[in-house]
Records
---
Amino acid sequence: MHWGHAVSKDLFHWEHCQEALLSDGDGVIFSGSALIDYRNASGLKKGQNAPILFYYTRVGKTRDQCLAVSTDGGLTLTKYERPVLPAMTSENRDPKVIFDQARSRYLMALYMEESRYALFVSETLLDWRLLQEIELPGDNECPDIYPLRAEDGREYWILSGAHDKYYVGIFDEEGYYSPVQEIGQLSYDSEGYAAQTYFYEKEKPVIRFTWDRSNIPGTPYNGSMCFPMEMGLVKRDGTFYLTARPVSYEAGLVKKRLLFSRGRKSQKDRTLFPDLQVVELVCLRFLQNAEGFQAVQAKPHGGDQTGKEKL
């Protein structure tokens, strides 16, 4: 198992490059994330480019969190000399690293085991210490953590797992993460898995890609990236809801437009989820068989809200 490498200028058209990280005698390469070290906190900068740090789980005799570094803008990666975080459980994996600007520190979210996750902090990006452990009931693997600004202008932090369960929370005065409400669910009965946001830049959209695990007969690949989505946070009747909407795209990419509004909806659901404009490019992730496309509409409080429309 290894890391592939693809580049894009618009998040829609991608060019494959040579593999970025290969397995070796110490273990295979599992999931992770990347961060541009603009502040050179790691001290690994060489030349003019800010180093890009790639964190991944190395699975060998143990599951260690490791680092690879690029000093040429992401063209080549060099494995760091040692793990940055030794194994803590037999299942720990999938490090997600982000800069916490308000507290001048770096955060690492890590899956531990069962439904347990952990947050670590660092000032150097090379040495990490445990901040706290958090239960995310009903979820496991591939954590994501990032800030979002709600409609009221206040900043909250989202902590999510591979199956799209999530907390909306804040960091208290002592720097610990604290959810402000019960766990939420973004997608239901979805083939999307292990979604990850791009490197976060203040006051810019938070963009997320999901891995589509749909079994599409006849395709020459195993899974694919879903449509890039812009994340948002809205509050309705005292409860925050995480939202995901397709990023802006060029008109030339659209083959067909479809107004999809099926199933029973209460007035509250109409406020949360108004009629959705669906394009065929988005609907591709819901392809089930040769009969047509299936678009799924999720209701946040239970009940069957699935509708089907052939395109």
---
Amino acid sequence: MSLVFQPVCASTSPQNLGQLTGPKSPTLNVFLRRILSRYMAVAIRLSRQGSKKRPFYRVVAAEKSAPRDGRFIEQIGIYDPRAKMLRLDQGRYDHWVKCGAKPTATVASLARRMRREADALPEQASQAAGA
């Protein structure tokens, strides 16, 4: 079995995957996932967890076609609406948005609110120190 390796770049498309790997390559699935992740629609959305009448949400990056509470690519935060608490890994959120993931309206507003509150904290601390 001979494999033809070419550098993977943005011009790599799913049509020419046969050129990049052998027909029975053991790493074919890993390779296909890595390549196709560039072409799948990724959404940053809330996944409901918790019991009845006690919801909390995971902020996840998931394929758009995956079920709401189903498989996801990466968990990037937690939101508890009862305690009004949001813990979001801002670096990973920015990474996924930069890669083309579309946040839902709710996640986008939560992220905006978190940034606004984070920006307000240093200002409040400096005003309290000056007073």
---
Amino acid sequence: MRNTKYAEKKAELISLCEEFKILFKKTNCYYAPQLFDETEIKIDWDSTGNLHYICSYSFMPKGIVSYLTVEMEKYIDSNNYWRYGVVLQEDDNFAYIEEKRCENRNEIAMKLRGKNAKNLLDKIRLKSDEINATFTNLKTEEKIDCI
């Protein structure tokens, strides 16, 4: 038997979770990126001519890629997501985004491909900047390389 104690609060709780970027709705299901599997997905990614973007943090808030995943949910490519990353698609443009944490380096790394990959990167950076702005004194350094 399901616990019905908070059933009347379900809509309110979902609304709060959406407001605080904890979950998103896609095809009549709710998803919470911080609960996704930690294992990076295996995807056949063609790195030829990719645009590379890195946003480095002196301190990277936990779950920042989860927030970005929620903000960019309409671009999620199929089921290509995990707790620390996501693949986004807009038309024939793709972005492979992953959170990397090391002892002396914390960053969000992206590789993008497609004729208009720069446009997709601009949309991602706009959302990323909005998320970063919600944190006080967050210091970031951006680097874009074309390979």
---
Amino acid sequence: MPSSAHPCKSEPIGSLQIRHDEAFFIDNMTHSPSFHITEVRWQSAAPALREIRTTVFIIEQHVPETLEWDGQDDAAWHLLAITSDGKSIGCARILSGGVIGRIAVLPAWRNKGVGRQLLQAAIALCKTHGQGICRLSAQVHAIPFYQKVGFEICSPEYLDAGIPHRDMQLVTATP
């Protein structure tokens, strides 16, 4: 997140309830029987996470590999969307401080709720780890996606990997 980012004023969202078992199931949200979201560690899921992020960011969006593989994956929390037959179809990364990023969904699975469920699970994971504010760097075309769950823009537009972005945040807890 660029140093020029400034805080947004935001109202807290309602409390998300999360069950800790093999997968995240977010209350008040449609869960698809064709996939589920699970928390994984980079050390055990790197091949699946790399495949998705390579397809979406490096191949489709032409993000340079040196920017995509930034050395922060080992310490991050990761979410993986997995089909009922075991295929990895989407992912997200959460850095310390509640920074959500690297949300990626394979082309065949877009517009089927995978990204929304990854985002909801990322927000819930941030809350579970005591983060009262979730932050992210949104590609400008994806801003409406994040606004639907309450994220607010809190920076001017800037380029990241040659792609227009704006910082956004969501307050999830009252001060």
